[in-house]
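Subject: mismatched residue count in predicted assembly?

I count 1021 residues in my input, but I want to confirm that the predicted structure covers every chain. Input:
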Amino acid sequence: MIALNHIYKYVNQGGTRVFLLRDISLNIAQGEFISIMGPSGSGKTTLLNVMGMLDEADEGEYLFLDQPVKALKEKQRSALYKQHIGFVFQAYHLIDELTVYENIETPLLYKDYKSSERSAMVCEMLDKFNMVAKKDLFPHQLSGGQQQLVGIARAIVSKPTLLLADEPTGNLNSQQGQEIMELFKKLNSEGLTIIQVTHSEKNAAYGSRIINLSDGRIEN
Amino acid sequence: MMTNHFKIAFRSLKRHKAYSFINISGLAIGIASCLIIFLVVRYELSYDTFRPSYRNIYHVITEDKGPDGTDYTPGIPFPALEALRTDFPQVKLTGLYYAYGTQVSVGDIQNSAAKKFIEETGVFFCEPEYFDIFNATWLAGNASVLKDPGQVVLAKTMAQKYFGDWKTAIGKMIRLENAMDLKVAGIIEDVPFNSDFPTSVIGSFETFKNSRYYSYTTDWGSTTSAFQVFMKMPENLPVENVQTQLKGLADKYYSNTGPHKISNSLQPLSEIHFDTRVPGLGDHVTSRSTLMTLSMIGLLIIVMACINFINLSTAQAVTRSKEIGVKKVLGSNRKQLFFQALGETNLIVLLSASLALVIAWLALPFIKHIISIHEELSLFSVQSVVFVLFIVIMVTALSGSYPALILSGFKPAAALKNRISSATIGGISLRRGLVVVQFAISQILIVGTIVAVSQMEYVRTADLGFNKEALLIVASTTDSVAQARHETFKQALLQLPEVSMASLSSDIPSSENNAGTNFAFDHRDDEDFTLYTKQGDADYFKTFGLEFAAGGPYTATDTTGSVVVNETLIRKLNIKDPQAAVGKQIRTGGGKWKTIVGVVKDFKTNSLREEVKPLLIAARKSRFCMVSLKLKSTNLAKSQQAIEKVWDKFYPEYAYRSVFMDDNIEDFYRQERQMALLYKIFSGLAIFISCLGLYGLVSFMTVQKTKEVGVRKVLGAGVGNILLLFSKEFTVLIGVAFVIAVPVSWYVMSHWLNNFAYKITISWTVFAIAMAISLIIAWISVGYKALRAALVNPVKSLRTE
Ligand SMILES: Nc1ncnc2c1ncn2[C@@H]1O[C@H](COP(=O)(O)OP(=O)(O)O)[C@@H](O)[C@H]1O
Ligand SMILES: [Mg+2]
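Triage response: the counts match. Full output below for your records.
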């Protein structure tokens, strides 16, 4: 599904080139559940953003579903992104002014679903996450764990094939973290490819493969 | 503490350059506009206030209550002066005769080579008593020199103009209208410009009375607006008493037996400059409603600037949350922070006010080109300093306290964590309300401007019912010497290749002149409405391109005194077919019966502010005082030179005066044109200020929504979606503002249009245009910032955690 070949990413700071990613080569197959680990500042988020097409590599080749991402036109890339990729954030990033229902519905608005389809899909998510009773609440009325559940529901409501999660449990206690991991495992078993960044060995163990990053490099 | 606050304020200004620029320039423009409007309004309100007896001087005006309503004239019959003196022995009274456009010859006055001046502001005649009421500073002589005939008093500038040095002027002679010689017997200090009594040449009243040139009469039956009477009330005499007494005297003075009831009433000096019912002796009368409108616009502009300030400052508050958080942690209390924020506002307002002073100083010299103020307004006076200080305090309080409250109210923990967002700042509805107000104001101003400008355009291009193209009006006088040469002069002009037609007349078709009289038709009794008259020779109709509905013009050889009337008169006499009026007889005043030979189609007899009046045109030669020429040549300047040469040959002792009909008509609507221009300028400024504000508000929104935009982009939103997100709210707000602006502007502008008898109707397109303009302006201001926000990579906006 994902093939990274000799990926480099850098920024120029005061004349010197600072590398964020160095020579990353990585293959991820459909249905895998990957955990990325590494110290703070090692480039995990950067790698995730590159794989999620939010950011572009400066050098190297990135194939997503066998398509060279760099060569795609903006429109094609955006279509590919909308169809296949869902994001979950450490800080949830729910929209404060919208209710749980509306937050989950938002990505569907940008993906041209009809209104009836939308409500069916959102209701399916609410059911699946046991949040039907909370659908009219606002984010600040929910606990952190519940907010992250909404964040995950929002990420997968349009049925992406790849879920990217950047420290999804970073702001949660271990009990809540464990519930999220169980959920990921379940989603993975239903066929969703998941790549998560985590600092916790225990949570990393839920994945089928662990990739260690250090200073922008993959360690073996 | 204070210096610390100012230091921080200054540095913060420097750090946020764009924000400071918007804030300071917007506010500066607002304050400058306000200040200029203040100076103009104050100047208009200052007319004649320098007179020590300002509160006690009254003008005796004449009311003519007829079946068509009440007419007011500033004049009074000549004998009224002595009658009033007898009836009000305790009151000081003076008469004042005013002859504008008088020719004054100086130097070798016996000779036609004398220097000739046309005094457009007029020559006055009065008794010494005038100076008991209206003060003057005497440089030479005193009021009593006006007791004797043949004496004249000059203002200093006038004496300098005539004789070079005012000190040598005493004893020298001047000649008026080639008819009267006067000896300079006194010099007074110039009358200030802000006076409606521009008395710079004052002849003795005896001269006027004895002159054959002017038509002084002891007849109570005729009133000219050129002769006016003023009173100075003694302190202990209530004005109301005099007023009632005057009313009671009406039937004694006037033969009020017919349908018209004539009486006198008092107009305080403090009203003369603002009473549009009667023209003043000065350059212009400004209605109080005009001054109110101007002041309102000034107020609106400053309100807009304050709203900008509030919106921009709250926008900025978010970005400064960290500073506030740190200060709170370091022990600053809310009150200190509040005053610090207020101090910053105050600094900005002070900077803006200084900039405003510079702008106003640069703009003031142009004011006299826009409105009728003939001296340069001075920026620096106690009042304007007080006014600016007042504005600074008001604006600081109005626009500083809310943002200061917000800033000082930040919770330190949240502020430090950068968790301050739209939700925590609150007051969204207030901000929305302010934006609605701003949009509503600018839409009202846009509608007002469009309506005012199109009305002026309508007036300017309106069909007056006669042809005003290439018409040159040469002014002559009615004195018998000039009269005698009129016909040969006209014939000589017709010999010029440049001139195709010429006509002698008393008046042009559309003018402010109202020569009205009672009249009778078809040997019946007097009708109960006033007939207006103009005098013109047989070529009048041809020269001005007047068309006939029935009959035709009288001929040059006609000696029976045939006349022409207009359709309005026929209509008022309830005659359906104009043809039926031809051949009937009509009589004006108590004169001879004259035959109507033609009915002209209606043309505008006055300005478009008034309805067409019932009119009679006759050929009374003694009233002719102008020659109207239809020019062939396209080189109008050259034609004018040729005409002037002919004039100098025929009238060497008279100065040449001419005006093009177009310009004359333009001058008619000078005040409206000036107002339209003022509206354009100030509403343009107001709209500009609201654009600045909108730009600021969008900056506010982009700061607030950075993260949300990032999240939405991650969720699949495109640039278009984000632009929509930003503009949706503004579009709704503009819609709400529109709902407010439509009825308000419709009401205000219909009111304004009621000043005109001929006016445009306000169509829905005006509102549509206003809506479109504000939408376009909003989209442009929103567009740039929103686009920038939409194009930011979400990776960046979501990174700070
Ligand atoms: N646009 C950028 N400009 C400069 N430095 C950056 C940029 N993006 C990331 N970095 C730096 O690159 C390093 C890797 O960042 P990141 O991928 O967020 O690390 P991680 O997620 O592993 O903590 C960090 O030191 C970060 O400060
Ligand atoms: Mg990270």
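The first helix of chain A runs from residue 44 to 51. Marking this ticket as 'not a bug'.
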